[in-house]
Amino acid sequence: MLDGQPLERHLNRKTVVRAFDRFIEHVKEGSISPDSLFEEAQHPPGRLMTRVFAKILTIMTNWRIRKHGHNPHAPYDYSASGSVDNGKR
What we know:
This protein is an all-alpha fold. The protein has two domains: 1-43, no CATH class; 44-74. The protein has four helices and no strands. It has helices at residues 13-29, 35-41, 47-67, 78-81. α1 (13-29) runs antiparallel to α2 (35-41). The longest helix is centred in the middle third of the chain and has 21 residues, at 47-67. The N and C termini lie far apart (57 Å).
């Protein structure tokens, strides 16, 4: 979060500046900052970024599966491996 730029230039500046001020108050008092302070300062990624991350991770996973000689889109039958007991004996 602190990359050398002023906090006022941060994308989520209203929340970040307020949380940083509260953190400094805790430091001055010598008390431990509560975890909720940091959780409130973090901004979750938006829907678009979540989809982008999911797509990238899917591509990376499929690439690794192919790298090991498997088809990521092939159907997988758990009962054929014999490792999963599905109640049929």
